[in-house]
Specification:
This protein is of the alpha+beta class and 261 residues long. The protein has two domains: 46-124, no CATH class; 155-260, no CATH class. 51% of the residues lie in helices and 12% in strands. It has nine helices and six strands; from the N terminus they run ααβββαβββαααααα. A hairpin with a 5-residue loop joins β4 (116-123) and β5. α1 packs across α6. The longest helix has 27 residues, at 146-172. The radius of gyration is 23 Å and the shape is elongated.
Length: 261
């Protein structure tokens, strides 16, 4: 089974690109006991809010079914405010997602100390519930400002990077440190490819940074292995394993699954 340079590079890119595919865990459904469940359309704002609610359920130790559900993800208060339904306490609370720092604070602590009790105030022009807090602020769906979207983009970029890192750890068994480095490389590739056409030279650089050896070395070793001499290929697998802080056996499994894509 002979592979060309482009096929090898595409295969490697595919395995990394696949890390960022798919969305996060479920959320945003209606809770029991009056949750109702306003399910907003998929958007960058919804992804951000849904991620926080998923993290809130996880950090609070909630097991299925969830305790917290997303009710509204865009409000007149802007600046990251969302409305969450607490099924256990049967109440709605507003919390600012953008004030939450996952690196220093647990989501349940942030929610406990910073959320505000809200109650139904009426409905908007689309029939969606509008909530109001004790200070008279309304939490109603509306269009976010460009500044809001910029802040959202920065948070979601960080969120996506973390998802890729977690995928590389769980699916490929890389260390957290190496997974973070590879995730940054993959994210950099995706960002660059949006602004310009990626070249074969770009692919070669990317290949070496991920595997620790030149693609030309890999092609020669691969060809020799196809002819019955796998010594050079085994040596490169050891080199790739060292670069990725894993075992040669596991690295061989990773490369095999990549080339079969």
């Amino acid at each position: 089974m002979k592979k060309s340079i482009s096929t090898l590079l595409i295969a490697l890119s595919l395995v990394l690109a696949s890390c960022s595919g798919g969305s996060g865990g479920g959320g945003g459904g209606g809770g029991g006991g009056g949750g109702g469940g306003y399910n907003p359309p998929a958007s960058i704002g919804y992804a951000e809010a849904d991620w926080f609610v998923d993290t809130l359920n996880y950090d609070s130790g909630t097991t299925y079914p969830d305790q917290y559900f997303l009710q509204k993800y865009k409000t007149e208060r802007y600046d990251g405010w969302i409305v969450v339904y607490d099924d256990y306490n049967n109440q709605y609370r507003a919390v600012n997602v953008w004030d939450f720092n996952e690196d220093t604070t647990y989501a349940d602590d942030h929610y406990y100390y910073n959320s505000k009790y809200v109650e139904s105030w009426g409905v908007d022009d689309y029939g969606n519930t509008v909530y109001i807090d004790d200070d008279g602020f309304l939490y109603e769906q509306t269009k976010p400002s460009s500044k809001d979207l910029e802040k959202l983009g920065q948070k979601v970029e960080k969120m996506n990077l973390k998802k890729v890192e977690e995928h590389l750890v769980s699916e490929f068994g890389l260390s957290e440190e190496r997974a973070f480095s590879v995730a940054k490389l993959a994210q950099g590739w995706k960002k660059a490819s949006k602004s310009r056409q990626m070249t074969n030279e770009d692919s070669k650089v990317f290949f070496k940074e991920v595997l620790g050896f030149d693609v030309s070395e890999g092609l020669k070793a691969f060809k020799k292995s196809m002819e019955g001499d796998s010594k050079d290929l085994d040596a490169l697998i050891v080199k790739a394993a060292e670069a990725n802080d894993t075992t040669p056996e596991h690295m061989k499994d990773i490369l095999s699954s990549t080339l079969m894509k």
